[in-house]
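2.7 Reproducibility. Because tokenized structures are sensitive to small changes in the input, we list the exact sequence used for Toll-like receptor 9A, including any N-terminal residues retained from the expression construct. No trimming or masking was applied before prediction.
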Amino acid sequence: SITGLIRASLVMYTVQIGWATLPRFFPCDDTKNFTGVNCRRRDLEEIPPIKSPKVIEIDLYKNKLVLIVNGSFLGVPNLQSLNLSWNCPPQSLQPDREPCKLTIDQNAFVELHHLQTLHLAGNSLTVIPRLPSNLIELNLEMNNIVHLEYQNMSGIIHLKALYLGMNCYYQNPCYSNLTFTRDLFIDADSLELLSLKFNNLTSIPLGLPSCLVSLDLAENKIPELRPSDFDNLTNLKYLDLRWNCQRCDHAAQPCFPCSNNSALHIHLDAFRNLRELKELNLRGNSLRELPDSIFEPLANLQSLELSDNFLALVIANGTLFSKLPKMQNLSLNYNYKPLNTFTKLILSHAMKDMRSLRYISLNGYFFRNLDESGIEPLLSLPNLQYVTFRTNFIENVNLTLFHGFNHSRLIDLSENILTLSTSCKASQERETIDRPLRLSRETTLPEFYSSVDDNRRDTDSDEHPSFYFSYPACKHYSKTLDLSFNNIQRIDPEDFRDMKDIECLNLSYNYINQRLNGSQFSYLTSLKLLDVANNRFDLYYNKSFNELPHLEVLYLNSNQFQFMIQGLGHSFNFLENMTSLKFLSLSYNTIGIRVSKKLNCPSLKVLVFRYNRLNIMWQGRKDTYINIFTNLTQLEILDISYNNLERVPPTVLESLPSSLKKLFITHNKLRIFHWEKMSSLPSLEILDLSHNVLIYLPNKTVSFGSNFTVLILEFNHITFFNNVFFANLITLEYLNLRNNKIKLIDENSFSNVLLQNLRSLDVSGNPLECTCEAHWFIQFLKTTKIAVEHVSNGMICDAPDSKRGQYLFSIDPRSCQDIYGHLALMVTCSLAVLLTVLPVLKKLYGWDIWYGAHILKALLRKGYSSCPSIDGYDAFIAFDSQQYAITDWVYNELVLRLEEKGSTQFRLCLEERDWVAGKSRIENLCDAVYKSKKTIFILGADGFASGVLRQTFFIAQQRLLDEKLDVVILVLLDNGMKMSKYLQARKRVCKRSIIQWPCNPKAQPYFWHSLRVLLAQDSKKWYDSKIRSS
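Resulting structure tokens (single pass, no recycling of outputs):
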């Protein structure tokens, strides 16, 4: 019936539209089973039309929205979380300085009755739109809001967290300060967290709700804490008051001290009602004294931050610490006395009353000696686990004094000028040694990682954290001693006496230049992790590190000094006796030659061999180091990235340990890879060949082991792939091919076997051709259950030109109907017109077209044409080959410019290259002059002093007499050359035939232009007209 036909048409149209608008919320991604919509960084200028009652979360972070109207979110009535941050940041915070304006209608959010979280940070808002009553969290940071009233927060009784920071400070200036009325928080009976940081506040705001648990007033300009400021905040547990009266001699950003550089004045009763306070931050307030009575009410205080003040005397003599019985974390960093370094550390005896203390940090106090009397108050603390004395210029310390810290997990003495050994101390007294420089790690909680993290920070940003391996760190062990970034030049066994309980030792970034003989660490019988990176260790003795029977992790990276010395051999035989070693890093050592042919370690599971020179070890047909990894029979992870490899020999792949599970060969220069050798690695699970220059995947079946699940080929130059390559990859679950050169993905790209088990596919960032041939791929994305990464914003068209820069899903499927019929019609019509018109044009205008074509060719051709020569040269180059500078200029400048570059190449005759062997010198010279159209003399400061130049000159003059041809061109390289009578006469007769090499590099293109003109033209054309006529 007619009705049935209409319904069928509507269904087909709906299917087409749905197919053309994939994914469901295009151009955003749907997440969490269609309950979340991710629109981050899509350059959207308006809210996408999202309609779904299931959606409860929308993220529009960092777009370019300009308008949010009242009905923008009508399609998501159950929305609970909305992030609209950083769509129009304040002008001073925009790196590109582009002006913008985001307008939000007053009732844009009112109808979102289920909305609980709203982020509006970084939008240059000056007023707050009406808010839904069920809101729990509101973020208004980084706007231009300087005044708030009751109407802004009225009725929002469920609000628990309000972020109002950074609306008025030096990077987002408002030239005033944030103000709000006293009745602003009357309805905020549930507010627990309030952030007012960076707002130029000059006093504690009035009317703060008593339900507050956390209050952030950091980086304002509050000079005084009055008795009544916190009276009603009886539930407060976290108070941040840092950097209000800033100490400017150690500020890392623009500094704003209080009047006369005075300290933050804290009234004795300022904290009288804060009996529930657990964390207090008073950092950077120029404090010089702290009376005990201030802290008497704070009996429950557990964390106190007092860094960047002037509390040197308080640290030595203060009694306030006895008022903090529950204190767990105490930070006293950078309380040094200006222009003063203490002889030794002296700590207040009151510290021994902090029986609950777990963490104390005393960095930047500046003292030279550390002895047992200095830390005596800490030795009796039963719960102390983390002690840090970084950046103090400590010269002398007896490490055995830390033996009293029975429960300690970290003793940090890094970033000082320790030398340890007696011989080194004596040498330091004679000369000053510059220590390595590094910015302080300003942390309030203990995070003690291995130094290899510093090396990886800039190089591994592209790694896949889920597939890569984690570097073992000291935080995983029970007790750590950190001596990194010191002046240690030598270590002796006695340095570590009575330290048998140390499990992790960090000696990285020192100056240790020593051959280890197996005795240096003999007292560290429990050591499991040793970091000696960034030193100068000489790996020579076979017993190195053998005194460490339980060592599991060894960092030897960045010890390249010894490996860079030419002719010096290196031995890794010490690995044979390390039966507990599981992780070894040899990165950043430029290891290339004169090392052990094989690495032998029966227990090693992870080997990091980055930034070495395997390209040298495996180059050509050398087989010396082919089996370097063969004897690592338990090896599971091997990383040989950044080794300048252009190829991995097939014998190397065959010799790798069969136990290998993860193989990383990233950031090399691989053009080909011997895929057929992968069958020799039956345990392989992950293969990462990203960041190479692979061009193709072979059109043959490749076999991997039954455990192979991950193949990463991103950032290569692969142009296509076919299903034959993937035919046997039945276990592959993750395939990454993003950022290659793939233009088309069709039904021949993937095998059915691959698609049955594949869970994740990433082909984003490829220059896709958005033609009708992409129909299969779009249909595949529509129907597949495979998780395709970046499906909405990573599939960008590169061709045709009309689609370049658009999303793949912007193709209208209806435009592909009958495309081949239309194409056939266009081709046949064009052929018919051509076959009809061309004979007519030839008959009527054939000669005119031929003549016009030649004229056009002559106009379009660049440069100067020379007459063709069958058996001759365009020019013979005469120069004194005994002068190195002239010879170098001829071969690297003149020959390169005239023979290889430019629109016209000239054929040059050179003595050492083109003269016939067996002929006499004079015969070759005559042939060179007479068979060349020009003879170019390259003259230095000595002019024609060379015998070859004089002979060539006489033969050229003879040719002038015989053939009436002036073939001489003179090139003067030295401005100071003495002018002979011939040169002076030549200048009068034909000045243009003498050209001089310019001193100014910008004039060199004109020099080469003039020389090309002389080679292409007859010299008579340039003769002086008066002389020629006479």
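The radius of gyration is 40 Å.
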